[in-house]
Amino acid sequence: MTANLIDGNDLAKKIRSEVAARSAVLTARGHQPGLAVILVGEDPASQVYVRNKIKACKDNGLYSSFEHYPYDLTEAQLVARIDDLNKNPKIHGILVQLPLPKHIDTHKVIEAIAVEKDVDGFHLSNAGALMTGAALFRPCTPYGCIKMLESISFPLQGTYAVIIGTSNIVGKPMAMMMLHAGATVTLCNSKTRDLGSHTRKADVIIAAVGRPNIVTADMVKPGAAVIDVGINRDNAGKLCGDVDFPRVKDVAGWITPVPGGVGPMTITMLLVNTIEATENALRKATK
Ligand code: NAP
């Protein structure tokens, strides 16, 4: 292996110890940070994600509430529940686990969350503010990727970054954050012609597609940093990312593993956003 590993578990541990310290300070002042987690339906992957988020709160001194509703919950009922949480002073962040059942309009639900409690950073106000570099909260997964690059002092300024995948929760906010850090950015999607012609020029590649081996060794410039956001199962049922890790690691300069890469950082940045939401609320209250 020539590439250096960017260990998400290791970095997450360091950031979580800072989170725990900030949480302890807030709790001592009578403002324990609180995250409300809402799950609708029985999607098995969502249940695992939600469990991990609640555990991360508990392990780091944050309060969390968990509401699990049946699949047939109506949109109006869900929005009413969010309204209650918006007014609850013990709750500083609200997370609605996605995807929601098809009969519920995800946009309407996200817009129902108070902007100052939108710790996922998906509200239109936060997504729009990210364009100007002034978002109250940045979406956790791309925020975690930026922290991983910062941890290796990767000089984003002036580099060429290629992001594969353009979702609202990963690819697009990732592009904005990279742009603000001074990178020249290209976004690729399923219609991109000759993906490799872009990635081969890239100093940093972010793969966020959801398809194994979308990035192969011949698509990577020697020494590039490769961040793998994808979560997939290979033919043997083993967890894997979007990058052909065994071969790309011999070409890249830096690489993130799956599991143990971006995943733990996503949850960590959710904790960071919840701490910041609490600090913001306290500042507002004491003004
Ligand atoms: P998504 O909404 O399904 O978006 C996938 C993107 O990939 C789309 O922009 C799509 O293009 C593009 N794409 C599909 N096939 C492609 C191809 N052959 N070449 C280039 N681009 C292609 O996915 P998402 O929610 O962003 O998630 C992406 C992956 O990241 C998934 O595996 C997900 O599980 C994982 N994820 C991980 C974390 C974490 O914490 N580690 C967090 C979030 C997501 P079009 O727009 O043209 O369809």
Order of strands, main sheet, comes to 1-11-8-7-5-6
> Briefly, what CATH class of the largest domain?
Alpha Beta
Indicate the percent of residues in helices.
Answer: 40-55%
SSE run: EHEHEHEHHHEHEHEEEEHEH
CATH topology of the largest domain: Rossmann fold
Identify the overall geometry.
globular
Give me the number of helical elements: 10
Q: How much β-strand is present in the residues?
A: 15-25%
Mean pLDDT reading: 97
Low-confidence stretches: none
CATH architecture of the largest domain: 3-Layer(aba) Sandwich
Query: What is the makeup of the main sheet?
Result: 6 strands, parallel
Number of strands: 11
What's the domain count?
Answer: 2
Distinct small molecules bound, one entry per kind: NADP nicotinamide-adenine-dinucleotide phosphate
Q: CATH H level of the largest domain: which superfamily?
A: NAD(P)-binding Rossmann-like Domain
Structural class from helices and strands?
alpha/beta
Q: Tell me the radius of gyration.
A: 19 Å
Family: Belongs to the tetrahydrofolate dehydrogenase/cyclohydrolase family.
Pathway: One-carbon metabolism; tetrahydrofolate interconversion
EC number: 1.5.1.5, 3.5.4.9
Binding site for NADP(+): 165-167, 231
